[in-house]
Amino acid sequence: MKKALSVLTVSAMAVSMLAGCGSSSSAPAASTAAAQETTAAAATTEAAKEETTAAAAATTAANAAAAQDVDLSDKKVGVCIYQFSDNFMTLFRGELQSYLESLGFKPENIEIVDGANDQATQTNQIQNFITSGVDVLIINPVNSSSAATITDMVQQAGIPLVYINREPDKDEEKRWEDNNWDVTYVGCDARQSGTFQGEIIAELPDKGDINGDGKVSYIMIEGDPENIDAQYRTEYSVKALTDAGIKVEELDDQVGNWDQAQAQSLVANSLAQHGKDIEVVFCNNDAMALGAKQAIEAAGETIGKDVYLVGVDALQEACENVKDGSQTGTVFNDHISQSHSAADAAVNYIKGAGNPHYIGCDYVKVTKDNVDDILASLG
Ligand code: GAL
Q1: For the whole model, what pTM was predicted?
Q2: Rounded mean pLDDT of 54-69?
Q3: Residues 312 and 246 grouped into a single domain
Q4: 12: number of CA atoms within 13 Å, CB side?
Q5: Which domain holds residue 151?
Q6: Section 67-91 average pLDDT
């Protein structure tokens, strides 16, 4: 089981703020001002750090109290994952399993099933969990648009429900609120991940305009289009560029369904058609960025020189590529904090303590500058 990243992020920020301030001093007056700034920044950072540490301690204490109040050793939790072969959801479910065990659930009382990317299969699995009498369900829906049907089934059986990773729409979330149901969603706001992808490009010295023609020519490789993460990342990555005043040109937009092999062949086709005109390859996730990297290298191009490449998730392999420059950047999709929050929410429901109907989490922008911290937190 891994530790959540919040404290680490703050201390990494402290190091980079201090390093940034220290290096700006040359003339004595400037250096005094810089020193004062550094002290102020350090104080603010320290305060933020203490707050974060206190919040983390409070959460741990609350979890421990929750776990003590109620004996979890005979409680059963059913977990539905949309598809086991998805790289990111594999990390998520591994962490969820070990964290649930650390809270006191017995391994034999945690059942995690594979929806095989088929909603009918998953609906059957949910029905089976209801019949077998689980105490709580954690569901990563195959189709978020089926959430209302799923909620009705689970709600009528009187079982609390924690949705993860694929956010149901606002109307559905409003129903939980209006009816005061024990239903919540744990996840991050995908708009933020898209924005971070665009910012990684906008913050490059040439702002993504490798050929200097005054615009960034990009291709977009999308995840499953039913998924809000794919929709928002596609929209907000480009929006971050235009918001920064950068002109853009879309050369291609294809659906790779979060999958490495599909992305590899899509990017190979696109390169065959557009060649060196492509300056940026945006992939909605890292699995697809790994496929894009294979296609780019097979076409004899060098990432960082001929083309830029960004993904989302911070898979270990993608981070290693960011470190050696063969992927421009990624965005950490914090499966550790999301899986812990989902398990904590499940425990709160079992305990009768309730939960807010939306439990959020922040993404983290990942470039060469901070990739070592992220790799360290992935363990
Ligand atoms: C996204 C993640 C993708 C994929 C998808 C599945 O949040 O970035 O890699 O796992 O969820 O819904």
Answers
A1: 0.84
A2: 48
A3: yes
A4: 17
A5: 59-188+335-364
A6: 91
